[in-house]
Design a protein that fits this description.
By secondary structure, the protein is α+β, with helices and mostly antiparallel strands. Helix content is 36%, strand content 28%. The mean pLDDT is 91.
Length: 638
RNA sequence: GCCCACAUAGCUCAGUCGGUAGAGCGCAUCCUUGGUAAGGAUGAGGUCACCAGUUCAAAUCUGGUUGUGGGCUCCA
């Protein structure tokens, strides 16, 4: 037998016989390590623990402590689940795909007869446990593409056949455990006995290959961990996240509601929610004016012909609401750009006056598919902090950077972490290569200048131009697009926007569509979850509540309340005939930052005794001292 | 829009086998005047989401509609 040299991460070299596996190598170091190992990197490539090593090279073992371990375990758990399902339901169910995902894994099944229900979960879990306890070896096998097609066709697994038919490779790899076989790249745990902690979580429909024209598959979501403790931590985290859910908090804090009578996806803002909105809108106007934007306001409906001219009628009609009066058709605006262009067009423009930056808190209506509505995060009527920057091509760069800085400033104030994505030219697109290059480079260089990481979504741009998307996460870590910057060459063309250049000729400007918060509704949804309902003082709809200890201080409490309200503090008065503890509790539960307690002592000294919502009592102070404290704190966005 | 599930008092939820409904909180009234997270008593409040159907009888079974939740597709 030939000997090969295997270099380990610590630099040491093991000599083993050719054909030895990573498991064998692990054994030479220690039995414990071998037991702990899940897979390995051989020359940088992920391989199974029982893959024969044919030549000298590097080897790095993936143990339970490695970051990759969980993903492999979950992927193997997906196979185990598929095996269990096939064992239980046989030919009635076809397997398709089952990857590991963040927080777990899923497997998609096709069946005409078997409808999975949550009651099946314990049955499937029990079968999985049984199969795992059997501790079957998980074996990799490589066969030719043709043989694989024949094999899966013989088994009646049409979806697997389709997958293999679309593969380029000469050979494909299969994984077998017991009598279950699945097409898979691997790697997997060496034995099913290594899968110990798993839990089926939910059931969902999913289109085959993510295309709504294809068959609807049944997806079972599940999760798996290396030990029970990690599973428990994960379940606790989900529990905590549910407490932050903006839909739950929105009801508890009386911020907003939806009504079946009004219609799905249409928000009813209650006084406290409307106050929060209004605070954010005031903030927005101020910040935009500071940055050279001008406020504009367009109409809520515009003639249908205009939507035809813009291309929305052809490309976006499904999402629009239309109305007709006096035989004239109107479209309710799903976007704000049209009015802004009409304002631009209302008079001749010179290169000297560019860029123009039109800002509007524009309320739009979009007919979103019923299944996608989600609290405030996906609605049908919403207000965008929308602006259109119409500029010369040579100004794109500076304008994009300006918007990026704006976005970063605002994210800093709210304390958000975010993910950025650059989406480039899709296959179906319009405009010249030069335009696309220039716009894409402008966006890219703004991203590079920010020094922050971003993802590249090749070919994911709008048909009219590339874009940067900024995504924020909700309590459950789902990403929601908020800010976006899009370059557009099409609409200026379609609307024949022009400016007179230095040469006295007409030129075509470029338009940037951009939002900073995105939609006020969505932003507030994310904001509620971000702060778990405990808004900083400057955002709190109610900043303070005046509480009297007994009826005898009611008149003084009333006087303090009025003094605060006049000073612009958002304050409430609670002089109900209740014990102080009760009132404190209510204020605490509604997450009001300051509780101002007034008893005989305070009335005597003409002071108030503030209690912060973290439970800390402050020394008594005069009302005017409290007012200036609140003003200082709020103006610093605290 | 598609798949699965769900819809009972203002809120959170119970309601067994088909025999027309309960709790806690909240609300109202009264008692209590109490110093930092729930004082006590009494009372009001429900076309069981909506529309059909099965049945002597439907909150309960069946179908449809609307809405909601988790996904898929799509998107701020």
């Amino acid at each position: 037998m030939d000997l090969i040299k295997i270099e380990l991460p610590d630099g040491s070299i093991k000599e083993v016989e050719s054909g030895a596996t990573p498991y064998d190598v692990a054994l030479t170091i220690g039995e414990g390590l071998a037991r702990q190992s899940i897979a390995a990197y051989s020359d940088g490539e992920l391989v199974d623990l029982n893959t024969p090593l044919k030549s000298s090279g590097t080897l790095s073992l993936i143990t339970q402590n490695s970051p990759e371990a969980l993903e492999i375990v979950r992927h193997s758990s997906a196979h185990l689940m598929a095996q269990a399902v096939k064992d239980l339901y046989g030919d009635a169910v076809q397997v398709t795909i089952g990857p590991a995902i963040k927080d777990g894994f899923y497997y998609d099944f096709y069946s005409e007869t078997k409808k999975f229900v949550p009651e099946d979960f314990p049955v499937i879990e029990a079968k999985m446990t049984e199969l795992a306890k059997a501790d079957q070896a998980v074996l990799r096998e490589e066969i030719s593409r043709g043989d694989a097609i024949e094999l899966f066709r013989g088994m009646g697994e049409d979806y697997k056949v389709e997958l293999i038919e679309d593969l380029d490779a000469e050979t494909v790899s299969l994984y077998r455990q017991g009598d279950f076989v699945d097409l898979c790249r691997g790697p997997h745990v060496p034995r099913t006995g290594m899968l110990k902690v798993f839990k089926l979580t939910s059931l969902a429909g999913a289109y085959w290959r993510g295309d709504e024209k294809n068959a609807m598959l049944q997806r079972i979501y599940a999760t798996a961990f290396l030990n029970k403790k990690d599973l428990k931590v994960h379940l606790n985290r989900l529990e905590e996240a549910r407490k932050r859910d903006h839909r739950k908090l929105g009801k508890e804090l009386d911020l907003f509601s939806f009504s079946e009578e009004a219609g799905g996806g249409l928000v009813l803002w209650h006084p406290k929610g409307a106050m929060l909105r209004s605070i954010i809108e005031d903030f927005e106007r101020k910040e935009h004016l500071k940055r050279g934007y001008e406020l504009v306001v367009g109409p809520q409906i515009l003639k249908t012909d205009l939507w035809k001219m813009s291309g929305h009628y052809d490309n976006y009609r499904e999402n629009m609401y239309f109305t007709e009066v006096d035989e004239q058709g109107y479209g309710i605006k799903p976007m704000n750009c049209l009015a802004h262009m009409l304002i631009y067009k209302s008079k001749p423009r010179s290169y000297r006056n560019l860029p123009v930056r039109y800002f509007e808190l524009g309320t739009v209506y979009r007919h979103e598919k019923s299944g996608v509505l989600h609290g405030l995060l996906r609605v049908r009527g919403f207000t965008q902090d929308d602006a259109h920057i119409i500029c010369r091509p040579d100004q794109i760069d500076a304008e994009v950077k300006g918007v990026m800085n704006f976005v970063q400033d605002v994210a800093g104030i709210f304390g958000f972490e975010y993910v950025m994505e650059l989406s480039t030219r899709p296959e179906k697109s319009i405009g010249s290569d030069a335009d696309w290059d220039q716009a894409t480079n402008a966006l890219r260089s703004a991203l590079e200048d920010s020094g922050l990481p971003y993802e590249l979504n090749e070919g994911d741009g709008a048909f009219y131009g590339p874009k940067i998307d900024v995504k924020l996460k909700d309590a459950l870590d789902r990403e929601w697009q908020c800010a976006t910057i899009q370059c557009d060459f099409t609409l200026p063309e379609r609307f024949d926007l022009t400016y007179v250049g230095t040469d006295g000729e007409k030129h075509r400007p470029v338009m940037l569509h951009r939002v900073v918060l995105g939609s006020i509704e969505r932003f507030i949804g994310v904001l509620i979850e971000h702060y778990a309902g405990s808004f900083p003082l400057w955002l709190s709809p109610v900043q303070a509540v005046v509480l009297n200890v007994t009826d005898s201080q009611a008149a003084y409490a009333q006087q303090v309340f009025e003094q605060l309200r006049e000073a612009g503090v958002r304050v409430e008065l609670d002089i109900r005939n209740e014990k102080l503890g009760f009132k404190i509790r209510e204020a605490q539960v509604s997450k009001i930052p300051y509780m101002l307690v007034i008893g005989d002592r305070e009335m005597e000294n003409q002071t108030i005794a503030p209690r912060y919502r973290n439970g800390k009592n402050m020394d008594a102070m005069t009302v005017s001292d409290f007012i200036s404290m609140v003003q200082t704190e709020a103006s610093a966005y605290k």
